[in-house]
Amino acid sequence: MSLARIFARTATAALIAVGMAAPAQAAVSAPVADDGSGPETMIIDGGYADDAPWAARMFADGRQACSASVIAPKWVLTAQHCVQGANQVSFRVGSLDQTQGREVFAVPGGVHVHPSADLALVNVGSSVDVEYAPIGAPGAAEVGETVQTYGWGATCTDRPEIECQSQWLKVADVTVTDTSCSDYRGGTAICAYRGDGIPAGGDSGGPMFATAADGDYVQVGVASTSDRSSRTAYTNVTRYSSWIGSLAGV
């Protein structure tokens, strides 16, 4: 089986994450329902990831916050709104269990945000020796294609999402509806419709993967927004490969 399909799913697992109007970092606050009455309902679906060596769980000031991907020995890719306001950014790497693995920290001045898209690159102080997430070329994701989204986001429907962040990395299929829509900051995004799951609080910054024309499994997006029900937008990293390469050298 190719890398594109080695991520097993179970029928009862949940993937979920970011807010449509304003992306929510689950460690900061729970979104409220439209009528202001209480926590927004979270979606439960998707499955558990079986193998994701590039996966990184982000912590902001020591609290679980977002998801991310390791793209080079000392570089981690996530969303701009995940790092905004954080004094210290760190990641757990090397495990699908967010309570395990090794913790690496951003170096002083190591958090770089894109000027107009919901992207952040974080330079960490020690090398991460894993299989890195390859950034796809433009066109790697196409309208109508089923792609995979990953994260440690919320799994409950009856309480604030910070109380039910998944211990284990989750994965869900979504179907691409547009490759030139907008992310949270007005950058170019890949919009998708719910498949067997949908992102929500805590999945922000997590990767979207697609199968390129040559059969390679490549990262094409970073979680930016979601309505936690049917639609999501991932910053289209294939459009920002020059910026990513200028910092991370990939």
Automatic annotation (TrEMBL):
SMART domains, A to Z: Tryp_SPc (SM00020)
Gene Ontology MF: a single term: serine-type endopeptidase activity
Entry-linked SUPFAM superfamilies: Trypsin-like serine proteases
GO BP term (any one): proteolysis
InterPro entries in alphabetical order: Peptidase_S1, Peptidase_S1_PA, Peptidase_S1_PA_chymotrypsin, Peptidase_S1A, Trypsin_dom
Residue ranges constituting the Peptidase S1 domain according to the UniProt record: 44-249
Protein keywords: Disulfide bond, Signal
Signal sequence segment: 1-26
Coiled coil residues, start to end: none
Family to which the UniProt record says this protein belongs: Belongs to the peptidase S1 family.
Name used for this protein in its record: Trypsin
Organism, as annotated: Actinopolyspora alba
